[in-house]
Fold this sequence. Notes:
Blueprint: H1 3-15, H2 20-32, H3 34-39, H4 41-45, H5 48-52, E1 57-66, E2 72-83, E3 89-95, H6 101-118, E4 124-129, H7 138-152, E5 161-164, H8 171-185, H9 206-223, E6 233-237, H10 241-252, E7 256-261, E8 265-269, H11 275-284, H12 290-294, E9 299-303, E10 314-317, H13 326-334, E11 339-341, H14 350-358, E12 362-364, H15 366-369, H16 372-385, H17 392-416, H18 423-441
Parallel strand pairs: 3-4, 3-5, 6-7, 6-10, 10-11, 11-12
Antiparallel strand pairs: 1-2, 2-4, 7-8, 8-9
Amino acid sequence: MDARLEAIRDTVLARNPGEGEFHQAVTEVFDSLGPVHDRHPEFLEAAILERLCEPERQIIFRVPWTDDAGRVRINRGFRVEFNSALGPYKGGLRFHPSVYLGIVKFLGFEQIFKNALTGMPIGGGKGGSDFDPRGRSDAEVMRFCQSFMTELYRHIGEYTDVPAGDIGVGGREIGYLFGQYKRITNRYESGVLTGKGISWGGSLVRPEATGYGTVIFTQEMLKTRGASFDGQRVVVSGSGNVAINAIAKAQSLGATVVACSDSSGYIVDEAGIDVGLLRQIKEVERGRLKDYEARRSAVSYVDGGSVWDVNATVALPCATQNELDGDAAARLVRNGLLAIGEGANMPSTRDAVAVFQDARVLFGPGKAANAGGVATSALEMQQNASRDSWSFAHTEQRLTEIMVGIHDRCAATADEYGDPGNYVLGANIGGFVKVADAMLAQGLI
Ligand code: NDP
């Protein structure tokens, strides 16, 4: 790392102790930015990096609710409004027991650059809670969401901060959150949340967008080597929103997705995953992946273990941060991996990224490859602002253009900075310069 940037990075780490994921995300971005500061000393003079690493606002709040037995439960809520240089804060809410400030800050920090790469007018933010919706009844989830919004509503708005879903927050949760926002404010403000239901202000393609977008980005990378998804053997991690839609899109392009996982284990289905059955189990029944084995022939379920033991030519990690380490990366490379597209945020550890880059495997980092979700959220905001709703085909076309644009911008930036094919460098520099220019133009704020 450039010595000037290393000194700033060390100060950031010392100011934010115990936030390992945030440290990792900051270090990964700083690793790429030395050459930009050679060309733009004004960024150092204006302390752009120091300002970027300090969120504009961090909100932490108590979320009290009662479970079905009438017992009082307390969770912690977060919203980190990181950077509004390009537009209102935009980024999802995550409900998972592992959520703490360091996770929210890593996700919010990544979101700044991701949103900049989309070319759309959105700043970066993220939020969530350590609440675990798994195993909770609909009524419990509703009471939790209502309590969460009873504090959050005063901080958000269509011109201020626009949350969406993430792990543990899908259409059901967005519905309860929106209902409570409307009730408290007495405003039908569609643009305050994205990921809404189609009949009440949501956008077609938003549920599919992150998974589809990841596959579209990866397809563009494959094209640079004269390949495509057609005929690829694909392994996906996770079996949630991003994973299921990535599987569907990859198979529609001619790939065979042979494995996917949840936090308990993974399935191998050599004939190609039956997406209809997977959706039924995970989205309708809210069941576990293990249930898939009993309902389809020639499927094996592995309890625990790593889905990265299954060999593949394309890997799409779509579960969570740091789920793919250096050993798993080395195994994938040995088994003939050609490309990896990150549907999740920071799923590959720093060691894993180094293994992929050394082996010249095509590597699409999450902040570029999974930007289709937030981009389609911005399309949802456009439709809300114009009181319009677009067709599936039109919205998917816009998503495709945006993902191809992000790919091309990352590739062109990597070329410009002398490291062709390095999408990490391209994404970090491409996103950073856009935000830094806007911050300079807006003065010391
Ligand atoms: P979901 O809650 O729909 O699904 C998450 C999946 O990942 C589940 O299969 C879950 O398994 C698994 N998982 C979650 N946490 C862990 C863990 N600690 N260890 C192992 N497996 C885990 O979330 P999404 O699909 O929405 O999100 C997945 C990833 O994509 C996240 O990194 C998210 O930040 C990122 N992302 C999501 C976007 C979106 O539009 N939804 C946009 C951009 C990025 P189990 O059911 O067992 O918990």
